[in-house]
Amino acid sequence: MMKRLKSLRLLRNKVVLITGGSSGIGEQLALEAARRGAIVVVCSRHQDKLEEVAHKCLILSGRPSFAYQLDVTDPDQIDQVLDKVRHEVGEIDVLVNAAGLGDMVPVANQSRRSMDTMVRVNLLATMYLSRCVAKQMMNQGYGAIINVGSLAGKLPTPNSAAYSATKAGVIQFDNILRMEVADYGVQVLTVNPGPVATHFFAQADPDGSYLSHIPSWMIIKSDSLAKTVWDNVGYKTREINVPGYTTAIGWIYQVMPGIGDWAIKKFFDFQQNKDLL
Predict the structure, then answer these.
(1) Structural domains of the chain sorted by starting position, each given as residue range(s) with its CATH number in brackets
(2) Which burial class, exposed, middle or buried, applies to 151 when counting CB atoms under 10 A from its CB (0-12, 13-18, 19+)?
(3) For residues 4 and 27, is the Cβ–Cβ distance under 8 A?
(4) 167 in Cβ contact with 152 (< 8 Å)
(5) Less packed terminus of the chain by CB within 10 Å, N or C?
(6) 123 DSSP assignment
(7) Mean per-residue pLDDT for 232-261?
(8) What positions does the domain Ketoreductase occupy (predicted)?
(9) 86 pLDDT band (50/70/90 cuts)?
(10) Catalytic annotation on 163?
(11) Angle ∠(208,50,60) on CA atoms, nearest 5
């Protein structure tokens, strides 16, 4: 089984399905997979953008590429798209759950609808897609499931409680899924980036109050992240934490959470909104 898993180190002619593939991290993962010769399948709600990404993948890989419109919050749509992929493309070798969204506001100001949507997109969809594809991969004896978590799932920051909770859920879900599928030759890789240079913050942080506290040198380039991810597929890598030093910071926070809370609040110059007092 390990030999078959190792075959994923070369993505040539492997079927790679990516949610959130029309933009951001998902798009860059799709383009990089295509450069490595994969048969790329991109999914999202935005059909026009999907078609553009799929066309770019076709040019880069010289292999067929596919675009399927998908609302990941709808389990019936997920079932239908997975069925189409298996019949029209083939069995999935690599699944990437990159669909995600955020809303960076204090908990007391956050709407129930916003919290519900983040849980459905970031966590429930990731769990359901992973569950469906894991069954197929266990039967075929190899595969890789890549779930995009976040540094926010390891380190708390003001104004990101609901978002961070969904990403912490992804990390713990992967920790258990990894144990359950390892004996079947299936890799589960959790990707935990810090802030990435995408359009994510245009929606999550429209006034820039969150991003303004992040030094420019901490911002990650999405194309560089994509290369790092694919360089670790087909190995025993459990997690990718980017930037790398955040692994040590996360460990320190677990050991000294009180000092960690003080330092994080200082770093973000955080004060409770006076309107709430």
Answers:
(1) 2-268 (3.40.50.720)
(2) buried
(3) no
(4) yes
(5) C
(6) I
(7) 77
(8) 14-199
(9) very high
(10) yes
(11) 105
The model carries a pTM of 0.86
> In residues, how long is the chain?
277
pLDDT tens-digit readout, 203-240: 655 666 555 556 555 667 888 999 999 999 999 999 99
Tokens linked to 183? 């004996």
What is the residue-wise DSSP string for 26-64? Answer: HHHHHHHHHHTT-EEEEEES-HHHHHHHHHHHHHHHSS-
Task: Catalytic residue, from 68, 128, 142, 163: name it.
Answer: 163
Structure tokens at 42: 């991109």
At 28-74, the pLDDT tens digits run: 999 999 999 999 999 999 999 999 999 999 999 999 999 999 999 99
Write out the DSSP string of 73-121. T-HHHHHHHHHHHHHHT---SEEEE-------S-GGG--HHHHHHHIII
